[in-house]
Design brief:
Helix content is 26%, strand content 26%. The protein is an alpha+beta fold and 266 residues long.
């Protein structure tokens, strides 16, 4: 791995920082910029905005979070601290979510896995090496593209949400040798973003925890980043999830696709 890539600075933006709720451009549509306690709540807000439109303004963030995120988790047997990205599926499927003043109905969430067969290996404290079996990267890209045809996909990443200089964000995966890619890595940081199909072989990553967090990239980049989570969950900062129990989270199924119920997934 070339040394010049080891100098990427990781900026810690995990969704807890205050951001005024406002509109920014996402493919000529409004994008919700959340002011919520957890990045996974902001990612889910982006998906809900996709289906239901921009949420009306609210007077109390605490009350909005409770009705939209906390109460659905409590109804599934979790506390509010289960704000990690895979639990967004429990929120959607609970039937208890409120978006603005309306009950969220007609949506379904399903988790799936973009994990590689070979467990990624940490190179140093800043990078993790993703090794794909022959043909595996293409199969995972095809899987992601199939899911994106149904709806937005929330992915969980093993680092903070904004990496390096602005022009290089979400172009950070480095091809180091055949079938092997390096991904910026920090074992103590996790982050949630939402992915949309953008056409022409591209995807749109929306990071609603930061202002103007819209990034066009390739599905191959998303696949490599998602695969890194399979290692991060075992190595360090996210191990507390195992201590609290992985109800319904099996086989590295950290990615969550959200779709309308009448569109039955294959």
């Amino acid at each position: 791995m070339r040394r010049c890539f080891l100098g990427l600075m990781i900026l810690v933006l995990c969704g807890g920082g205050a951001r005024a709720a406002q509109r920014v451009t996402r493919a000529d549509n409004a994008l919700w910029v959340g002011e919520f306690d957890q990045c996974s709540y902001n990612a889910l807000a982006s998906a809900l905005e996709h289906f239901y439109g921009f949420v009306p303004s609210f007077h109390s963030r605490a009350n909005f979070e409770r009705r939209t995120f906390f109460d659905p988790l409590h109804s599934q047997g979790f506390g509010a601290y289960f704000g990690w990205a895979p639990w967004t599926g429990f929120m959607v499927n609970s039937g208890q979510m409120m978006w603005g003043h309306k009950r969220v109905r007609g949506l379904e969430a399903r988790r799936f896995s973009l994990a590689t067969r070979v467990l990624p290996r940490v190179v140093n404290q800043n990078w993790i090496l993703i090794r794909f079996a022959p043909g595996e990267r293409g199969r995972l890209v095809a899987r992601l593209e199939r899911e994106l045809k149904k709806g937005p996909v929330i992915i969980w990443t093993p680092y903070a949400g904004v990496l390096g200089p602005k022009g290089h964000r979400w172009h950070m995966v480095v091809h180091v040798r055949p079938h092997a890619y390096a991904v910026p890595f920090n074992v103590h940081l996790t982050h949630a973003v939402t992915v949309f199909a953008a056409g022409h072989g591209k995807v749109l990553v929306t990071d609603c925890s930061v202002l103007h967090g819209c990034y066009i990239t390739s599905p191959g980049v998303v696949v490599a980043v998602a695969a890194a989570m399979a290692a991060s969950i075992r190595i360090g900062g996210a191990n507390s999830i195992y201590a609290h129990g992985l109800k319904g989270i099996h086989n590295n199924k950290f990615e969550t696709v959200i779709y309308r119920k009448h569109r039955t997934p294959h």
